[in-house]
Task: structure prediction
Amino acid sequence: MVDQQTEEGSLAVDFCGIRLNNPLVLLSGCVGFGEEYTRVEGFSNRDVGAICLKGTTLEPRLGNPLHRVYETPAGMLNAIGLQNPGVDHVVRKILPTLDFSETRFFANACGATVDEYVDVVRRFDDSPVDAIELNISCPNVKAGGAAFGNDPEMSARVVEACRAVTSKPLITKLSPNQTDIAENARRCIDAGTDAFAAINTLMGMAVDVAARKPVLGNGQGGLSGPAIKPVALLKVHQVYQVCQQRGIPIIGQGGVSSGADAVEFMLAGAALVGVGTALFYDPLVCLAIADHLEQYRLQISAEGAADWVGKLGAA
Amino acid sequence: MNAPQSHRATLLSESAELLSQQAFAGDQMVMRLAASRIAERALPGQFVHVDCGQPMMLRRPLSLMRVDQKQGWVELLYKKVGAGTRLLAERQPGETVSLLGPVGNSFQLHEELSRPLLLGGGVGMPPMLFMASNLRRLKGFKPQVLLASEVPFPFTPEPSSIMIDGMPSSVIATMPLLDDWGVPARLASNQGFPGCFDGFITDLARQWLASLVADERSKVEIFACGPTPMLRAVQELAAEFDLPSQLSVEEYMACAVGGCAGCVVPIRDGDGVAMKRVCVDGPVFAGEQIIF
Ligand SMILES: Cc1cc2nc3c(=O)[nH]c(=O)nc-3n(C[C@H](O)[C@H](O)[C@H](O)COP(=O)(O)OP(=O)(O)OC[C@H]3O[C@@H](n4cnc5c(N)ncnc54)[C@H](O)[C@@H]3O)c2cc1C
Ligand SMILES: Cc1cc2nc3c(=O)[nH]c(=O)nc-3n(C[C@H](O)[C@H](O)[C@H](O)COP(=O)(O)O)c2cc1C
Ligand code: FES
Result:
């Protein structure tokens, strides 16, 4: 548990030179623009280390037609389609309303072209956000997104171009929908990324039998939640093999819904652990996860929450 | 006219003891839960996001039908339509059900529109009953309630002791609770249930509206919740009589906190369209703004 009395709790960690309350991150697209969950009694943004804001594009986007979300076994599909008010609105109207004393806010930048990523990142560079996540893995838009993320060459081009316009920490969000995620990570490190987020959602679909149509208005969507946890763990572990020597941290994510899940991701190599879909079931889940991490820390007599990252023995 | 506003108040996560669960024909269930803190704050039109139990990942949105602030319970009416609601129907008294709420905005009364017409169809009845129970205590309003169902009503209809001008003489059935509250109400169905209007709720509403003198009719505001075809017909009815309306709409949800933008519906916004979240900006929207 983060101790509110002292300056810093025992789970505080460093990430790309930024100090975080704890290793928990609320994931992009699950918590709007950062303030929505503070309406839930018992939750405060202080309870997490960082919050990733909704995917943001240069121009406003209305997003995809209905339906956009649908439950599937142990998970859900979403096809929001990056509904957002555009980067200028986010920077001018939304960021000034956020309380940066409580937690760290990471922007989530998206684009349909390399130039659009650069424009979005440039605007966030000139804003109070603490880091910028490059979402090159959104499965729910026709152009850009996963089209970049599934190709190591294109991924590296986006990272390189964005690196040139910002000195803020850059986090590259990797897609699981590709052949060799480790190779992609290697290329992105060379292109200048400071960190990774892994994984974004897996592509999937659901069928409405009566209507003989896909349930989602977009036809297909991204699968998240416990159903993808084993896939996510493996991908984090694979990316960690590349990151370890280079000192590049990973925000592990995909189906985390308990403290035990968070420990697993950290052992597999995640410096921070992201929570998204689990919030929809239990909006207070991060308090329970933080409690568990603190218990685990005491149990293994660790000094801090970075001590067990990547400490996975051979099978 | 003040359109319903977005709602950004505190959301409570309450572990509610299931007090009773009653099954009615047509797969309908009425569930009463001890949730005193949600009951204390709830407004008509708001809903709770219900954890139906393992292995459901997502909660299900269900409207608040009745709340008793003194005794600290809330009551829901729901229909078993899929895995989530079927699982919920298996929960037994004494078990705990996790509720998140109260979620969403609420129906807004306007003093000058003193003749609210409340239309509830099927499992869209709950917000109308909640609103009627508040209206019975509000002086200055003369409400009229119409309820419709294509399966047997989740109560036993009885002849009403309250006369209503402008109702066809054969249409005498009501929900006894509304009679007890002194709220005039009638029932409609296409199933030929005795004492009920034989046809659509909007046709009965049209007859009643047409019977009002123009001055009285201008004081009507329409409030409705029900299946989409009904809401579309209500939107047309309101346009036909040039009356304001507030409609409660449904869409698939994930968070119900405003975080995911999963539950949006298209809403007219000036000359354009905005995708508005049913869980924060709704579920109640000004009727003429909804794009069905
Ligand atoms: C604000 C609001 C208030 C509601 N109030 C009531 C009520 O008082 N009584 C009642 O019986 N029903 C109500 N509904 C509809 C109810 O939420 C759905 O019937 C229920 O979610 C179906 O879940 P299921 O798992 O049984 O069905 P399934 O069809 O198996 O559900 C599959 C998925 O679709 C979603 N879904 C299916 N139908 C609907 C629907 N009509 N609206 C929203 N999501 C849907 C489910 O939540 C789930 O994610 C309300 C919906 C909303 C949005
Ligand atoms: C409704 C929804 C919307 C999402 N929107 C975004 C987004 O805008 N940008 C992004 O990078 N990831 C987005 N994601 C992916 C999540 O940030 C996260 O990577 C993924 O859901 C896996 O974690 P989880 O299983 O804990 O949800 C979204 C996920 C969901 C469920
Ligand atoms: S259900 Fe997530 S924004 Fe409404």
